[in-house]
Write a structure and sequence with these properties.
Length: 98
């Protein structure tokens, strides 16, 4: 693999969220944090904790944390598909942000 074929990779922890009847994203009942990573084909950009992204199977996930991920470790995590402009109010994420 040539130097130019590498891309920046980040690891994100997050919880699955669902939309209520008002369209607001809220953590799914009994949600457990999990990890996803950016991939070569991830669409959009990360902006803030609480931002919602979509997984490859269409699940909506709210970001709890972000960290650098070594390029050679990327295959240990599932890539996220795309970022959305939606976010979850921090008051609903506090229990995971301790």
């Amino acid at each position: 693999m040539g130097k130019n074929s590498k891309y920046e990779t980040h690891l994100f922890s997050g919880v699955v969220v669902t939309q209520n009847l008002s369209g607001q994203y809220l953590p799914k009942q009994d949600a457990k944090p999990n990890f996803w990573r950016t991939g070569k084909h991830t669409k959009g950009h990360f902006t803030t904790i609480g931002q919602v992204f979509l997984t490859e199977n269409g699940q909506a996930v709210a970001v709890l944390s972000m960290q650098q991920l070594a390029f050679n470790q990327r295959h240990n995590y599932t890539p996220l598909q795309r970022w959305t402009s939606a976010s979850v109010d921090m008051q609903y994420l506090n229990q995971w942000l301790t």
